[in-house]
Amino acid sequence: MLIFDADDASYVRELADYVAIPSVSRDATPAVMKAAAEWLVDRLTFANGHLVETEGHPVVMGEWSGVEGAPTVLIYGHYDVQPIGQREEWTTDPFSLTVDGEVMRGRGATDDKGPVYIVLKVAQAFLDQEGCLPLNVKFLFEGEEEIGSPHLSAFVAEHKAMLAADLVISADGAMWRPDEPSLSIGSKGLLSMDLVVTGAHDDLHSGRYGGVVANPIHALCEIVAGLHHPDGRVAVAGFYDGIDALSDERRQEIAAVSFDGQAFLGSLGLQEGFGEAGYSLLEQLWERPTLEVNGVRAGGKYTVIPHTAVANISCRLVPGQEPNAVVDALQTHIEEISLPGVAIELKVDPARIPAYTVDADHPAIAAAKAALESVYPGEEVLLAKIAGTLPPVTLFEEFLGAKTLFFSFSTADERLHAPNEYMRIRRLREGMRAWEQLWRLLATGPHRLHPSPARESSAKHGD
Amino acid sequence: MLIFDADDASYVRELADYVAIPSVSRDATPAVMKAAAEWLVDRLTFANGHLVETEGHPVVMGEWSGVEGAPTVLIYGHYDVQPIGQREEWTTDPFSLTVDGEVMRGRGATDDKGPVYIVLKVAQAFLDQEGCLPLNVKFLFEGEEEIGSPHLSAFVAEHKAMLAADLVISADGAMWRPDEPSLSIGSKGLLSMDLVVTGAHDDLHSGRYGGVVANPIHALCEIVAGLHHPDGRVAVAGFYDGIDALSDERRQEIAAVSFDGQAFLGSLGLQEGFGEAGYSLLEQLWERPTLEVNGVRAGGKYTVIPHTAVANISCRLVPGQEPNAVVDALQTHIEEISLPGVAIELKVDPARIPAYTVDADHPAIAAAKAALESVYPGEEVLLAKIAGTLPPVTLFEEFLGAKTLFFSFSTADERLHAPNEYMRIRRLREGMRAWEQLWRLLATGPHRLHPSPARESSAKHGD
Q1: According to the model, what pLDDT value does residue B442 have?
Q2: A274, A280, A421: best to mutate for the B interface, most B CBs within 10 A
Q3: Chain B closest-CA separation from residue A434 CA (Å)
Q4: Average pLDDT of A379-402?
Q5: CB neighbours of B5 closer than 8 A, spacing ≥ 6?
Q6: pLDDT value at position A173?
Q7: Element (H, E) at A414
Q8: Residue B314, SS3?
Q9: Long-range contacts of A266-271 (CB under 8 A, 24+ apart)
Q10: How many angstroms separate the CA atoms of B35 and B13, rounded?
Q11: How many CB atoms lie within 10 A of CB A8?
Q12: B99 dihedral zone (left: phi>0; alpha: psi -120 to 50; beta)
């Protein structure tokens, strides 16, 4: 067993230097993004850490391959963070990591700087205390996760050999609940699109033209209102095509999860939920696809009939749904709508991410389960699905042929993407212990990974 | 007949000084607003022009009462302008009045600096050439018209005696079409409100919570979609209460107006219109009330279920509709909607303006018709209604007991409130000639106003 005997304050202090770099991928200057990337590079000297330029923010790469014949894992994470949102909603400076009781608050604390920091400390402890890691480890930290990883696909395709691994372990992606260890065996896919309704060629005065021209807002609302049935089902023909009916076995599994739906909703300030009829809350969350309008925008509080109205829509997909088929179904649905005096267009974003699953009996799941059980003795490890989407896993499967294990010590309630993001401090230490065990278990023992003999040597950097 | 023999260039030059003051009531500093007000004061020395402070931007007042026993008119206008909108959409500097062929372009050129300038030039010409005006004239120019005249009501109520007049003549409000003299015999009323739909107490990640909580955007769209029937009628029970059926006579009158609906819509970039079934385009525009959603706003193009969604709604009212009754009908409609997982609120703004009408046989209409006929010989003067709302007229009727005559030489197509606002230069000279005739006709002859003997002396300023 490694010894992690630094006190919490020193961990927080070191992590605070990283959080202090405001690496907001949407807004920050290249210099700021590079500073965050270099903070990581400085901690990856043992793995020849270095920056690789892309058309966007650079990628941090590293590789330590000191154990011949051992399996290789690729650690994924990101050094960029979300914008802070409304500054006045933060109780402390977003970029000064601040201890507040049992948590540390700051932008990126839990998404994804804290979780990545854990991995770096574990690697360092192995090297300091044992002189080597238990298996071969590669690192890939990107700077564009929060803006949809626009250049990651090309990067992974281009550097396949360099990135080749038997398993990807993601330090990104949160556990479901703070008091219950869980592993994700799947995540939903994602489609994003804009519905654009256009009327006149210019905004019109609503007094002088109201009542004689179609109002694009009225039309947009009518279309949006028609996207769901009153019972919550998506009203787009073909939307659910390809999805297997939920088996009784899975229903029973989900029903057995200890979960207080009313408390869950209450924590959001809600007295009742709303979702697709015929499914329990957890079934809706884990097993069913969704179509949500994330934004609407048109005109304003003045006397106008805006010439255009836009709704931003996203769909979360489940296994069985083919993203392009869902796009076709949506386009057909929209094309069949005819409203007088307006033009209607559905602009679907190019990224089309299918749902992702890992078999519950994949060795990595077994190893991760054992690792978590060693850190949380007596707790049952929940095999959950992430209702969210983690686009990189699709790339890793497609280009590297490797499954991804989510092994983050972030928790879903830690205000990811919101003001006052925080991470529980105790999770740093729990995470280090768990990663240590995971690496050991993946290297040896009943759940060890079997290195692919076909995999090319990854020693040739720069391919 | 007065002589207006300055050349156009000198008129434009003088008006340009006024346009150069960026008196945007929504944004400008008090000093800028005051500068615009003082530009007017400087031209009202003959009428003891002065500023009166209010809780908002000051009001410019003036009074010339040199003809004992003559009727008194109160001239209304405003010195504030709309924001410029997108600067890059302007082809020239918004605050440099620029001649471009037959028009002069600049913010406020036609709304309302040009039309007010006309009145000032006419008064000056009377004094220079005849030593007096044909009737007694008071002036009231406000600085908050473009932000809804929030302090005008209190001001008029407080200064009733000082403002007392036999007729208000508004230099604000545009004629319908550039090539056809017209007079307005009515304008629509106005209600404004916000429909607010609220879900959770915070924005939620649409991946992690989508499908299990109600989405306020979906609910908002469903409510908005339910505000109209598919045939364009407002679906709020009681909305049309109190409105007289359109008489055959009025239908015939409107049908007789020379109007090319297809060209009208084509000029807006539309191939078809859309409005309440059973009414022609002009009937919809002039005679029927409307409910338009002017704005919607919620969330954005990111993975969120926003905790709140807002629609800005306005209703234009016609004679017979009682504003408070319409508010009650809307509140009842909204209260009867029950959607799971969201709270719905309709916040109605305090200003509730009923429709306004002047009898077509009011002496001021007859005088104005004759004045326009003298300037546009051979043209028929159209008695139109303004589909828009001019809130001050309601105040003048309520507090001063005086009807308002709209006598502006602005035209509705001159991009009021939009980038590249302009005014036709020839309308300056036409307007001066018309105002001269109007004042003469209101003072003497068959259409003269009869001064109210009951009206208090207005010599006591400061009441």
Answers
A1: 97
A2: A274
A3: 24
A4: 88
A5: none
A6: 83
A7: none
A8: strand
A9: A267/A413, A268/B200, A268/B201, A268/B202, A268/B204, A268/B209, A268/B213, A269/B200, A269/B201, A269/B202, A270/B199, A270/B200, A270/B213, A270/B214, A270/B341, A271/B341
A10: 18
A11: 14
A12: beta
Residue with tokens 């990854």: A458
The beta-carbon neighbor of A298 closest among B225, B275, B296 is B296
What is the amino acid identity at position B97?
A: L
Output the six-digit token pair for A94. 């977003």
Residue recorded with tokens 């690792």: A371
Looking at residue A175, the DSSP 8-state letter turns out to be B
| Alpha-carbon span A54 to B89, nearest angstrom | 36
Can you give the pLDDT at residue A389?
80
Q: How far is A431 from A174, CA to CA, in rounded Å?
A: 12
- Within A277-331, strands assigned E span 290-299, 304-305, 308-317
In the predicted model, residues of chain B with pLDDT beneath 70 are 453-463
Supply the DSSP string of B255-280, one letter for each residue: HTS---HHHHHHTTT-S-----TTS-
SS3 B117: helix
Closest Cα of chain A to B49: distance in Å? 32
The pLDDT of residue B454 = 53
All domains of chain B in start order, with CATH: 8-187+355-443 (3.40.630.10), 189-243+289-351 (3.30.70.360)
Tokens 């009842």 belong to which residue? Answer: B332
Whole-angstrom distance, CA of residue A332 vs CA of residue A314: 17
C-alpha to C-alpha distance for A195 and A462, rounded to whole angstroms = 42
User: For residue B352, which of B189, B211, B130 has the smallest C-alpha distance?
Assistant: B189
Q: Which residues of B fall within a CB distance of 8 Å from A410?
A: none
The ipTM assigned to this model is 0.84
Q: Given CA atoms B368, B370, B375, B379 in this order, what sign does their dihedral have? A: positive
Phi first, then psi, for residue A154 (nearest 5°) are: -60, -40
Cα–Cα distance list, A133 to A388, A435, B49 (Å): 32, 12, 88
- What DSSP line would sit under A57-114, residue for residue? SPEEEEEE--STTS-EEEEEEE--B-----GGG-SS-TTS-EEETTEEESTTIIIIIH
Name B50's bridge partners.
B61
Phi, psi of B337, deg, nearest 5: -85, 130
> For B159, which DSSP code?
T
Q: Quick one: how many helices (H) and strands (E) in chain B?
A: 14, 18
Which chain A residues are within 8 Å of B226, Cβ to Cβ?
A: 225
Peptide bond into B112 cis (omega under 30): yes
Q: Which tokens go with B151? A: 């302090």
Contact B207 A199 (CB under 8 A): no
pTM of structure? 0.84
What whole-number distance in Å separates Cα of residue B306 and Cα of residue B322? 36
